[in-house]
Amino acid sequence: MTTCVTIRNNTATPFGLHGKLHVQGTQLLDEHNNPCQLRGLSTHNLSNYPEFVNEAAITQMVDEWKINVFRLAMYSGDADGFQGYATGDDAHREFLEALIQKAAEITAKLGIYLIIDWHCLLDPDPNTYSDMAVHFFQKMCPVLKDYDHIIYEICNEPNGDTTWKDICRYADTVIPAIKAIDKDKVIVVGTPIWSQRVDEAAAAPLSYDNLIYTLHFYADTHKNELRSIMEKAIQDGLPIFVTEFGICAADGAGAINLEETNLWLRTLNRHGISYIMWNLSNKDETSAIIVSTCNKTSGFTEEDLTPTGKEFVKLMVNTL
Ligand code: IDC
Fold first, then answer.
1. Which residues are catalytic?
2. CA pair distance 227, 268, nearest whole angstrom
3. Is the CB of 186 under 6 A from ligand 1?
4. What is the model's pTM?
5. Which residue minimizes the CA distance to atom 2 of ligand 1?
6. Which domains can be identified in the chain, with CATH numbers?
7. Is the per-residue pLDDT at 1 higher than 60?
């Protein structure tokens, strides 16, 4: 792979305005040391819905829906009948790597931020595939290191019996591998119980610079109790990034809960916390933003959007 880095760097773009990000205290700061709040959309499983990663679709999201960050959810393990990066064959890995590079180039051109998410989920303990995670970052970091608009997310949602200590062991393997090649990009670290127990990370944070920790919520499942855990962790000094949320239930389906969504977003905005919604696909589920009968992969109109999609556009376009 060759690297050709030209990031659209005029002040009309989010990257042009903010430049390379870093973490200080509880805050995500831009290159001028001003707080920077990222808001945007996550793909569904990259192995399953790669067609939505295209320039026209991302351009519409930036120009019309005003996203300033896009997240690539690259599943580490198999899911829904599709191979993950760690469990697939070499050809599949190369396909995913090329797709990531394509997304890096598109988002650089558009001047928005890009999160590359090692999406552990059905592999509850990220240590299961830590060798492959290291392989992935050692392969991609040389390609991506000059792209200052990229953020790495090293473990989407540890779950099951995985403890914070287990996550630290994984982080202590993967973060040095990344930093050996790509020293100062922001890295997002998942937390126990599907990235909800930020309190455990706050009690024993990792000691690397430019780390930020993951909290995920689904508004019809996670409510005041989780918001309190989050606010306490912030008080305790933990920087938090909501790299994934849903306005429905935690299974990605069920009813939309706008009341709880508003409570969440008001809290996040008050703290300047960044957030990214799940998901860009036309899967027949509440959390997808495109209706399942739509075959387009760009140029979406109002009729192509699900109720979640319409809410997404509203909450992105509304200024804070
Ligand atoms: C869900 C998808 C669903 C898919 C399932 C397993 O919406 O179509 O069948 O994953 O691949 C998460 C995960 C995210 C989940 C989402 C909704 O990070 O991968 O996507 N969710 O269940 N955490 C909490 C909820």
1. 157, 244
2. 9
3. no
4. 0.97
5. 252
6. 4-317 (3.20.20.80)
7. no
